Amino acid sequence: MRDGLVVVDKPAGWTSHDVVAKLRGVYGQKRVGHAGTLDPDATGVLLVGLGRVTRLLRFLQEAGKEYRGRVVFGVATDTLDGSGAVLERTEMRFSREQLDTVAGAFVGDLEQVPPMVSALKVGGRRLYDLAREGVEVERAARTVHVDHLVVEDFDPADYPEATIRVACSSGTYIRTLAADIGAALGGCAHLASLRRLRVGDFTLDDAATLDEITADPDAMIRAPSEATRGMEAVAVDPERARAVAHGAIFAAPALLGDREGGGPFAVVDGRGNLLAVYERRGGAVKPSVVLMSETPVS
């Protein structure tokens, strides 16, 4: 069984689950998972874990993300994106300056109601499954954070279009953001296309297409330590490495020295092999994930 991280440039028309199923076949193993669902029509960075790295995906899931989206104003759809049925079509007139001003108001903490066509679970069922059955349920608003929102280009017309670039917290729905911007401009809007540019520290420059991965699967596997590249690393000596491999709990100074913060911390051996991920709990640091039960020689 292979352990590692694969950074995929997901094509349009594939669900995130489709990509996982494809890579299960490519790598000949069942233990494959992904961090951060992308809608079928969306493209871009999708992080896929193999083997024991699937246990690290929750940390990657929580990482910030960046997107480029094309927004069409004056047209509302039942899915808030280009795949849905048109519910409303009304011409809109506004300037680039007005759009920039409104877009700026969507930076910071926002309250978003998740769309019905999302992977969020309510009552144990995915919202998109309920939507397919014609069922709509109440969804509680959630707080998300937009770090920046830039209008990259604008095409004024009867149905204006704009390209936006958004850096945001995990859990932010760009289609909802597009619809809310349209409403703030006095009309409606939907997200015509979406490309994810970044997840945490991984960008499109790191990503490979499914054809490239299929052509040379082993070359596309990144070491488990790559999955924690956004974490502060803590290198340990062989004695502590053995204790870490057995899930030992340490007094914070004994493992972290004078490092501050709650973590997570990537604990590595002298060669940079990832042993575990630890987090601070009060005055102690405890393992959240132990990746190696046998430590390599340092």
Structure description:
The protein has helices spanning 16-27, 57-61, 96-104, 127-132, 174-184, 210-215, 238-245, 252-256; strands spanning 4-10, 32-35, 43-50, 65-73, 75-77, 86-89, 108-112, 121-122, 125-126, 142-155, 161-168, 189-199, 202-203, 232-235, 250-251, 265-268, 274-281, 284-290. By secondary structure, the chain is an alpha+beta fold. The chain has 3 domains: 4-63 and 201-226, Pseudouridine synthase; 65-199, Pseudouridine synthase; 231-290, Archaeosine Trna-guanine Transglycosylase, Chain: A, domain 4 (Roll), CATH 2.30.130.10. Strands 1, 2, 3, 4, 7, 10, 11, 12 and 13 form a 9-stranded mixed sheet that branches. The radius of gyration is 22 Å and the shape is globular.
Report the order of strands and helices: EHEEHEEEHEEEHEEHEEHEHEHEEE
Extract low-pLDDT stretches.
none
Determine the number of helices (DSSP H or I, runs of at least 4 residues): 8
| CATH architectural type of the largest domain | 2-Layer Sandwich
Shape: globular
Distance between the termini: 23 Å
How does the helix and strand content classify structurally?
Answer: alpha+beta
Number of strands: 18
Rg from alpha-carbon coordinates: 22 Å
Share of β-strand residues? 25-35%
CATH topology title of the largest domain: Pseudouridine synthase
> How much helix, percentage-wise, in residues?
10-25%
Domain module count: 3
Average pLDDT reading: 90
CATH superfamily of the largest domain: Pseudouridine synthase
Strand count, sense and barrel status of the largest sheet are: 9 strands, mixed
Q: According to CATH, what is the class of the largest domain? A: Alpha Beta
